[in-house]
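User:
Hi there, any thoughts?
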Amino acid sequence: MPAHLERQLEKLKQMVRGLTTEVAEAVQHALAAFQHRDCELARQVIDHDDVINLTEIDIEEECLHTLACYQPVAMDLRYVVSILKVNNDLERIGDHAVKIAEITCYLANEPFADLMAFIDGMSEHVMQMLRLSLEALLDSDVDKATLVRPSDDRVDTIHRRMYEQVETAMGDNPQNIPQLIHIMNISRQLERIADLTVNIAEDVIYTVEGEILRHGRSVARSDPSRSL
């Protein structure tokens, strides 16, 4: 690899490292705010989203600059393409953290203790998935990337059970329907974050092995003789 390209890819990696830190903290703080009904912390998550959005734009511009000026090939090209995709996924995860924070302020005085066990279980799995996918991304670690999807199945299972419980609660206490809809929306945001961590993990596998994965299945493997 030419030295100038190596320096450019390292610059990209450091930019992505910074974004992963911002996004992971946003999710962690949003979930902590919800757990403790801390509207002040939730507002901090909302206000900080502009930083994530601006960083996402900077990384996209740097990726396009890299493609245009350095013309990477093979694994280096796959890396830049994957960073473009992951960059967007990270920004979307940040958006879901903001939605959780917004709902937190609305539900500041609503306990719903019987449903919190579902949210806590989902939160634990989602944070583990996020941590694994980001570590896999930064370390180009396929082994860690392959550990992400099994947790997604568990998140989906909890989400379905949560839906059933909320549906029952709506029937028993129709006066709580607006609040229960917001509780269900928290579960939905967590499910979407989990899906995005799977996307990141699949992009890590694509970068390292040239294998294109969609929905947990191999779609195609890059021909070593081609640039991608």
Q: What stands out?
A: Strands lie at 211-214, 217-221. The radius of gyration is 19 Å. The first helix runs from residue 3 to 36.
